[in-house]
Write a structure and sequence with these properties.
There is one protein chain. Helix 4 packs antiparallel against helix 5. This protein has three domains: 93 residues, Beta-Lactamase (2-Layer Sandwich); 73 residues, Signal transduction histidine kinase, dimerisation/phosphotransfer (DHp) domain (Helix Hairpins), CATH 1.10.287; 181 residues, Heat Shock Protein 90, CATH 3.30.565. With 406 residues, the chain is of the alpha+beta class. The protein has twelve helices and twelve strands. A hairpin with a 3-residue loop joins strand 11 and strand 12. Its main location: membrane. This is histidine kinase. It is found in: Cell membrane. Its EC number is 2.7.13.3.
Protein backbone atom coordinates (compact mmCIF):
# COMPACT_ATOMS: atom_id res chain seq x y z
CA UNK A 1 0.00 0.00 0.00
CA UNK A 2 1.42 3.32 -1.03
CA UNK A 3 1.80 6.20 1.35
CA UNK A 4 -1.10 8.28 -0.10
CA UNK A 5 -3.43 5.32 0.12
CA UNK A 6 -2.34 4.59 3.70
CA UNK A 7 -2.92 8.22 4.67
CA UNK A 8 -6.44 8.17 3.21
CA UNK A 9 -7.19 4.92 5.01
CA UNK A 10 -5.93 6.27 8.30
CA UNK A 11 -7.98 9.43 7.82
CA UNK A 12 -11.14 7.40 7.20
CA UNK A 13 -10.52 5.27 10.28
CA UNK A 14 -9.97 8.42 12.36
CA UNK A 15 -13.19 9.98 11.06
CA UNK A 16 -15.16 6.84 11.91
CA UNK A 17 -13.65 6.66 15.38
CA UNK A 18 -14.28 10.36 15.92
CA UNK A 19 -17.87 10.14 14.77
CA UNK A 20 -18.45 7.12 16.98
CA UNK A 21 -16.96 8.93 19.95
CA UNK A 22 -19.20 11.94 19.37
CA UNK A 23 -22.27 9.73 19.06
CA UNK A 24 -21.28 7.90 22.22
CA UNK A 25 -20.87 11.16 24.13
CA UNK A 26 -24.21 12.52 22.85
CA UNK A 27 -25.95 9.26 23.72
CA UNK A 28 -24.43 9.26 27.21
CA UNK A 29 -25.45 12.90 27.70
CA UNK A 30 -29.02 12.18 26.65
CA UNK A 31 -29.18 9.15 28.91
CA UNK A 32 -27.94 11.31 31.76
CA UNK A 33 -30.49 14.06 31.02
CA UNK A 34 -33.29 11.49 30.78
CA UNK A 35 -32.28 9.93 34.07
CA UNK A 36 -32.08 13.35 35.69
CA UNK A 37 -35.53 14.21 34.34
CA UNK A 38 -36.99 10.93 35.59
CA UNK A 39 -35.66 11.47 39.11
CA UNK A 40 -35.86 15.27 39.35
CA UNK A 41 -38.32 16.88 41.75
CA UNK A 42 -37.56 20.41 40.58
CA UNK A 43 -40.58 22.41 39.49
CA UNK A 44 -40.48 22.99 35.69
CA UNK A 45 -39.79 26.51 34.49
CA UNK A 46 -42.90 28.68 34.34
CA UNK A 47 -45.03 26.49 36.60
CA UNK A 48 -44.32 28.61 39.68
CA UNK A 49 -45.35 31.79 37.84
CA UNK A 50 -48.56 30.13 36.67
CA UNK A 51 -49.36 29.03 40.23
CA UNK A 52 -48.88 32.56 41.56
CA UNK A 53 -51.34 33.85 38.97
CA UNK A 54 -54.10 31.39 39.92
CA UNK A 55 -57.11 32.34 42.04
CA UNK A 56 -57.85 28.72 42.98
CA UNK A 57 -55.86 26.82 45.62
CA UNK A 58 -53.25 24.69 43.80
CA UNK A 59 -49.96 22.95 44.57
CA UNK A 60 -47.26 20.72 43.09
CA UNK A 61 -46.27 17.58 45.01
CA UNK A 62 -43.29 15.23 44.83
CA UNK A 63 -43.54 11.40 45.11
CA UNK A 64 -43.42 11.52 48.91
CA UNK A 65 -46.44 13.85 49.07
CA UNK A 66 -44.30 16.86 49.96
CA UNK A 67 -45.59 20.17 48.64
CA UNK A 68 -42.86 21.84 46.55
CA UNK A 69 -44.85 24.81 45.14
CA UNK A 70 -48.22 26.44 45.88
CA UNK A 71 -50.54 29.15 44.69
CA UNK A 72 -51.32 32.08 46.98
CA UNK A 73 -54.82 30.75 47.68
CA UNK A 74 -53.57 27.33 48.83
CA UNK A 75 -53.13 28.59 52.38
CA UNK A 76 -56.93 28.71 52.77
CA UNK A 77 -56.89 24.91 52.93
CA UNK A 78 -53.75 24.70 55.05
CA UNK A 79 -51.48 23.77 52.10
CA UNK A 80 -47.95 25.20 52.44
CA UNK A 81 -44.65 24.64 50.66
CA UNK A 82 -42.29 22.29 52.45
CA UNK A 83 -45.11 20.51 54.29
CA UNK A 84 -46.82 17.20 53.63
CA UNK A 85 -50.37 17.26 52.30
CA UNK A 86 -52.57 16.71 55.36
CA UNK A 87 -55.89 15.64 53.89
CA UNK A 88 -56.12 11.87 53.40
CA UNK A 89 -58.66 12.12 50.54
CA UNK A 90 -56.42 14.48 48.58
CA UNK A 91 -53.39 12.22 49.16
CA UNK A 92 -55.38 9.23 47.88
CA UNK A 93 -56.37 11.16 44.74
CA UNK A 94 -52.74 12.16 44.10
CA UNK A 95 -51.49 8.59 44.60
CA UNK A 96 -54.08 7.23 42.18
CA UNK A 97 -52.99 9.65 39.46
CA UNK A 98 -49.32 8.98 40.07
CA UNK A 99 -49.88 5.25 39.75
CA UNK A 100 -52.27 5.22 36.81
CA UNK A 101 -51.14 8.36 35.00
CA UNK A 102 -53.36 10.90 33.29
CA UNK A 103 -55.61 12.97 35.51
CA UNK A 104 -58.58 12.49 37.82
CA UNK A 105 -61.26 14.68 39.43
CA UNK A 106 -63.22 14.10 42.62
CA UNK A 107 -65.77 16.08 44.60
CA UNK A 108 -64.83 16.20 48.27
CA UNK A 109 -65.72 17.99 51.49
CA UNK A 110 -62.71 19.53 53.19
CA UNK A 111 -62.42 20.85 56.72
CA UNK A 112 -58.69 21.55 56.62
CA UNK A 113 -57.03 24.87 57.29
CA UNK A 114 -58.85 25.52 60.56
CA UNK A 115 -62.22 26.08 58.83
CA UNK A 116 -65.26 25.45 60.98
CA UNK A 117 -67.67 24.54 58.19
CA UNK A 118 -66.83 21.88 55.59
CA UNK A 119 -66.29 23.22 52.09
CA UNK A 120 -67.43 21.36 49.01
CA UNK A 121 -64.57 21.29 46.50
CA UNK A 122 -63.78 19.83 43.11
CA UNK A 123 -60.21 18.49 43.30
CA UNK A 124 -58.29 17.65 40.11
CA UNK A 125 -54.90 15.93 40.09
CA UNK A 126 -52.69 15.70 36.97
CA UNK A 127 -49.17 14.43 36.35
CA UNK A 128 -46.82 17.12 35.05
CA UNK A 129 -43.72 14.95 35.08
CA UNK A 130 -42.40 11.56 36.16
CA UNK A 131 -42.02 12.75 39.75
CA UNK A 132 -44.44 15.66 40.08
CA UNK A 133 -48.22 15.95 40.38
CA UNK A 134 -50.31 19.12 40.06
CA UNK A 135 -53.32 19.39 42.38
CA UNK A 136 -55.97 22.08 41.78
CA UNK A 137 -58.81 22.64 44.26
CA UNK A 138 -61.90 24.58 43.25
CA UNK A 139 -64.33 25.65 45.98
CA UNK A 140 -67.86 24.98 44.70
CA UNK A 141 -69.67 25.52 48.01
CA UNK A 142 -71.34 28.72 46.85
CA UNK A 143 -72.41 27.15 43.58
CA UNK A 144 -73.98 24.24 45.45
CA UNK A 145 -75.72 26.65 47.84
CA UNK A 146 -77.18 28.69 44.97
CA UNK A 147 -78.35 25.54 43.21
CA UNK A 148 -79.99 24.36 46.42
CA UNK A 149 -81.62 27.77 46.87
CA UNK A 150 -82.96 27.61 43.31
CA UNK A 151 -84.39 24.15 43.91
CA UNK A 152 -85.94 25.20 47.23
CA UNK A 153 -87.35 28.36 45.66
CA UNK A 154 -89.12 26.42 42.92
CA UNK A 155 -90.44 23.83 45.39
CA UNK A 156 -91.58 26.43 47.94
CA UNK A 157 -93.16 28.65 45.31
CA UNK A 158 -95.12 25.73 43.89
CA UNK A 159 -96.32 24.82 47.38
CA UNK A 160 -97.24 28.39 48.34
CA UNK A 161 -99.16 29.02 45.11
CA UNK A 162 -100.93 25.68 45.39
CA UNK A 163 -102.55 26.59 48.74
CA UNK A 164 -104.54 29.70 47.71
CA UNK A 165 -105.43 28.18 44.32
CA UNK A 166 -106.83 25.08 46.05
CA UNK A 167 -108.73 27.29 48.51
CA UNK A 168 -110.31 29.31 45.72
CA UNK A 169 -111.33 26.10 43.96
CA UNK A 170 -112.95 24.66 47.10
CA UNK A 171 -114.73 27.92 47.89
CA UNK A 172 -116.08 28.10 44.34
CA UNK A 173 -117.53 24.61 44.80
CA UNK A 174 -118.98 25.69 48.17
CA UNK A 175 -120.68 28.69 46.54
CA UNK A 176 -122.20 26.42 43.92
CA UNK A 177 -123.57 24.06 46.55
CA UNK A 178 -124.92 26.96 48.65
CA UNK A 179 -126.45 28.89 45.76
CA UNK A 180 -129.85 28.95 47.49
CA UNK A 181 -128.38 30.55 50.66
CA UNK A 182 -127.44 34.21 49.96
CA UNK A 183 -125.77 34.65 53.33
CA UNK A 184 -123.42 31.70 52.81
CA UNK A 185 -122.69 32.87 49.28
CA UNK A 186 -121.60 36.26 50.64
CA UNK A 187 -119.36 34.58 53.22
CA UNK A 188 -117.72 32.32 50.66
CA UNK A 189 -117.35 35.19 48.17
CA UNK A 190 -115.55 37.26 50.81
CA UNK A 191 -113.19 34.38 51.51
CA UNK A 192 -112.53 33.96 47.78
CA UNK A 193 -111.66 37.66 47.58
CA UNK A 194 -109.28 37.28 50.50
CA UNK A 195 -107.57 34.26 48.94
CA UNK A 196 -107.35 36.07 45.59
CA UNK A 197 -105.74 39.03 47.34
CA UNK A 198 -103.28 36.74 49.05
CA UNK A 199 -102.48 35.08 45.73
CA UNK A 200 -101.93 38.46 44.11
CA UNK A 201 -99.67 39.60 46.96
CA UNK A 202 -97.65 36.40 46.79
CA UNK A 203 -97.23 36.66 43.03
CA UNK A 204 -96.20 40.30 43.27
CA UNK A 205 -93.59 39.59 45.91
CA UNK A 206 -92.18 36.65 43.98
CA UNK A 207 -91.78 38.95 40.96
CA UNK A 208 -90.17 41.66 43.11
CA UNK A 209 -87.69 39.22 44.61
CA UNK A 210 -86.92 37.71 41.19
CA UNK A 211 -86.22 41.16 39.75
CA UNK A 212 -83.91 42.03 42.62
CA UNK A 213 -81.95 38.79 42.21
CA UNK A 214 -81.91 38.58 38.42
CA UNK A 215 -81.00 42.16 37.45
CA UNK A 216 -77.33 43.05 37.36
CA UNK A 217 -78.06 46.54 38.69
CA UNK A 218 -80.97 48.62 39.96
CA UNK A 219 -83.31 49.94 37.28
CA UNK A 220 -83.08 53.57 38.42
CA UNK A 221 -80.20 54.97 40.45
CA UNK A 222 -80.45 58.54 41.71
CA UNK A 223 -80.19 60.52 44.96
CA UNK A 224 -82.98 59.40 47.29
CA UNK A 225 -84.27 61.30 50.31
CA UNK A 226 -84.66 59.00 53.30
CA UNK A 227 -87.25 61.41 54.71
CA UNK A 228 -89.44 60.75 51.66
CA UNK A 229 -88.82 56.99 51.84
CA UNK A 230 -89.91 56.82 55.48
CA UNK A 231 -92.88 59.18 54.97
CA UNK A 232 -94.16 57.15 52.00
CA UNK A 233 -93.69 53.84 53.85
CA UNK A 234 -95.53 55.10 56.94
CA UNK A 235 -98.37 56.61 54.93
CA UNK A 236 -98.87 53.36 53.00
CA UNK A 237 -99.43 51.43 56.24
CA UNK A 238 -101.60 53.83 58.25
CA UNK A 239 -104.78 51.89 57.47
CA UNK A 240 -103.17 48.58 58.46
CA UNK A 241 -101.92 50.14 61.71
CA UNK A 242 -105.36 51.58 62.53
CA UNK A 243 -107.11 48.27 61.91
CA UNK A 244 -104.55 46.49 64.09
CA UNK A 245 -104.80 49.03 66.90
CA UNK A 246 -101.09 49.86 66.58
CA UNK A 247 -99.54 53.32 66.76
CA UNK A 248 -96.82 54.35 64.29
CA UNK A 249 -94.21 56.71 65.75
CA UNK A 250 -91.60 58.31 63.49
CA UNK A 251 -88.48 60.04 64.80
CA UNK A 252 -84.74 60.49 64.49
CA UNK A 253 -82.49 62.49 62.19
CA UNK A 254 -83.72 64.33 59.11
CA UNK A 255 -82.11 65.31 55.83
CA UNK A 256 -80.33 62.00 55.08
CA UNK A 257 -79.74 61.00 51.46
CA UNK A 258 -78.60 57.81 49.78
CA UNK A 259 -78.08 56.73 46.18
CA UNK A 260 -80.42 54.12 44.74
CA UNK A 261 -83.97 53.36 43.68
CA UNK A 262 -86.57 55.13 45.82
CA UNK A 263 -89.38 52.68 45.04
CA UNK A 264 -87.27 49.65 46.03
CA UNK A 265 -86.32 51.29 49.32
CA UNK A 266 -89.94 52.28 50.05
CA UNK A 267 -90.99 48.67 49.52
CA UNK A 268 -88.19 47.40 51.79
CA UNK A 269 -89.01 49.78 54.66
CA UNK A 270 -92.72 49.15 54.10
CA UNK A 271 -92.21 45.41 54.49
CA UNK A 272 -90.52 45.96 57.85
CA UNK A 273 -93.37 48.21 59.02
CA UNK A 274 -96.00 45.72 57.84
CA UNK A 275 -94.28 42.87 59.69
CA UNK A 276 -93.96 44.96 62.84
CA UNK A 277 -97.69 45.78 62.78
CA UNK A 278 -98.68 42.14 62.25
CA UNK A 279 -96.59 40.88 65.16
CA UNK A 280 -97.46 43.71 67.60
CA UNK A 281 -100.28 43.48 70.15
CA UNK A 282 -103.15 45.97 70.11
CA UNK A 283 -102.38 49.20 71.91
CA UNK A 284 -98.63 48.91 71.32
CA UNK A 285 -96.36 51.15 69.27
CA UNK A 286 -94.11 50.63 66.24
CA UNK A 287 -91.20 53.05 65.99
CA UNK A 288 -89.55 54.10 62.75
CA UNK A 289 -86.29 55.95 63.42
CA UNK A 290 -83.49 57.35 61.25
CA UNK A 291 -79.92 57.85 62.45
CA UNK A 292 -77.01 59.44 60.58
CA UNK A 293 -73.80 57.70 61.66
CA UNK A 294 -70.92 59.20 59.69
CA UNK A 295 -71.06 57.79 56.17
CA UNK A 296 -73.94 55.45 57.03
CA UNK A 297 -77.68 56.02 57.33
CA UNK A 298 -79.60 53.69 59.64
CA UNK A 299 -83.35 53.13 59.27
CA UNK A 300 -84.65 51.18 62.26
CA UNK A 301 -88.13 49.68 62.68
CA UNK A 302 -88.80 48.55 66.24
CA UNK A 303 -91.87 46.80 67.63
CA UNK A 304 -93.05 45.57 71.02
CA UNK A 305 -94.27 42.27 69.70
CA UNK A 306 -93.62 38.61 70.37
CA UNK A 307 -89.94 38.72 69.38
CA UNK A 308 -87.91 36.15 67.50
CA UNK A 309 -86.10 33.16 68.98
CA UNK A 310 -82.36 32.93 68.41
CA UNK A 311 -82.72 29.77 66.32
CA UNK A 312 -85.24 31.50 64.03
CA UNK A 313 -83.16 34.69 63.79
CA UNK A 314 -80.51 32.86 61.77
CA UNK A 315 -83.04 31.91 59.06
CA UNK A 316 -85.50 34.78 59.23
CA UNK A 317 -84.30 36.31 55.93
CA UNK A 318 -84.72 33.07 53.95
CA UNK A 319 -87.47 32.85 51.33
CA UNK A 320 -90.79 31.53 52.66
CA UNK A 321 -89.38 31.05 56.16
CA UNK A 322 -91.85 31.96 58.90
CA UNK A 323 -90.89 32.08 62.56
CA UNK A 324 -94.57 31.77 63.52
CA UNK A 325 -96.16 29.63 60.80
CA UNK A 326 -99.67 29.67 62.22
CA UNK A 327 -99.75 33.46 62.70
CA UNK A 328 -98.36 34.10 59.23
CA UNK A 329 -101.03 31.88 57.68
CA UNK A 330 -103.72 33.66 59.69
CA UNK A 331 -102.56 37.13 58.67
CA UNK A 332 -101.86 36.21 55.04
CA UNK A 333 -98.08 36.51 55.27
CA UNK A 334 -96.08 35.25 52.29
CA UNK A 335 -92.73 34.68 54.00
CA UNK A 336 -91.01 36.78 51.32
CA UNK A 337 -91.04 40.24 52.88
CA UNK A 338 -87.79 39.97 54.82
CA UNK A 339 -86.04 38.26 51.93
CA UNK A 340 -86.97 41.24 49.76
CA UNK A 341 -85.65 43.59 52.45
CA UNK A 342 -82.34 41.74 52.54
CA UNK A 343 -81.80 41.72 48.77
CA UNK A 344 -82.98 45.32 48.34
CA UNK A 345 -80.53 46.48 51.00
CA UNK A 346 -77.65 44.52 49.51
CA UNK A 347 -78.41 45.97 46.07
CA UNK A 348 -77.90 49.41 47.62
CA UNK A 349 -74.52 48.43 49.07
CA UNK A 350 -75.87 48.08 52.60
CA UNK A 351 -76.87 45.47 55.14
CA UNK A 352 -79.80 44.67 57.40
CA UNK A 353 -79.38 43.79 61.07
CA UNK A 354 -81.73 42.22 63.59
CA UNK A 355 -82.02 42.58 67.33
CA UNK A 356 -84.74 40.58 69.02
CA UNK A 357 -85.74 39.05 72.34
CA UNK A 358 -88.74 36.72 72.74
CA UNK A 359 -91.49 38.59 74.55
CA UNK A 360 -89.70 41.95 74.27
CA UNK A 361 -89.94 42.78 70.59
CA UNK A 362 -87.67 43.12 67.58
CA UNK A 363 -85.70 45.85 65.84
CA UNK A 364 -84.72 45.57 62.18
CA UNK A 365 -82.09 48.08 61.05
CA UNK A 366 -81.29 48.89 57.42
CA UNK A 367 -77.81 50.40 57.02
CA UNK A 368 -77.06 52.23 53.76
CA UNK A 369 -74.09 54.26 52.45
CA UNK A 370 -74.86 57.96 52.94
CA UNK A 371 -74.28 60.68 50.34
CA UNK A 372 -74.35 64.45 50.59
CA UNK A 373 -77.64 66.16 49.82
CA UNK A 374 -77.79 66.98 46.11
CA UNK A 375 -77.32 70.66 45.27
CA UNK A 376 -80.29 72.53 43.69
CA UNK A 377 -80.64 75.86 41.95
CA UNK A 378 -82.51 78.85 43.28
CA UNK A 379 -85.76 77.73 41.65
CA UNK A 380 -85.25 74.21 42.89
CA UNK A 381 -84.47 75.48 46.38
CA UNK A 382 -87.80 77.33 46.53
CA UNK A 383 -89.64 74.27 45.30
CA UNK A 384 -87.81 72.10 47.84
CA UNK A 385 -88.61 74.53 50.67
CA UNK A 386 -92.27 74.53 49.68
CA UNK A 387 -92.31 70.72 49.60
CA UNK A 388 -90.56 70.63 52.97
CA UNK A 389 -93.28 72.83 54.52
CA UNK A 390 -95.91 70.56 52.99
CA UNK A 391 -94.17 67.44 54.32
CA UNK A 392 -93.91 69.06 57.73
CA UNK A 393 -97.64 69.72 57.85
CA UNK A 394 -98.33 66.15 56.71
CA UNK A 395 -95.88 64.74 59.26
CA UNK A 396 -97.51 66.82 62.02
CA UNK A 397 -100.90 65.40 61.10
CA UNK A 398 -99.54 61.86 61.05
CA UNK A 399 -97.77 62.45 64.35
CA UNK A 400 -100.88 63.77 66.02
CA UNK A 401 -102.73 60.74 64.78
CA UNK A 402 -100.08 58.14 65.61
CA UNK A 403 -98.12 59.58 68.52
CA UNK A 404 -94.98 60.65 66.59
CA UNK A 405 -91.88 61.35 68.61
CA UNK A 406 -89.54 64.18 67.69
Amino acid sequence: MSSPQFALFALAIGAIIGAGTVLLVVWAYRIRMLAAHETSTSVPAGVTEVLHGMDDPACVLDPSGLVVATSNAAARFGIRSGAVLDNADLRRLVRAVRGEGGSATETLRLTAGGMLDPRLVSARASRIGPQLTLLIIRDVTERERLEQMRTDFVANTSHELKTPVASVSLLAEAIESASDDPEQVRVFAARIAAEAGRLGQLTGRILSLSRLQAAESLAQIEPVSIDEVVASSVEAHLVQADSGGVTLARGGDRGAWVRGDAQVLIEAVGNLIANAIVYSPKGSSVGIGVKIDGDVVEIAVADQGIGIAEADAERIFERFYRADEARSRRTGGTGLGLSIVKHATQRHGGEVRLWSRPGQGSTFTIRLPRIEAPSVGKKGAKKKAKKKRSDKKSATAVGARNGETA
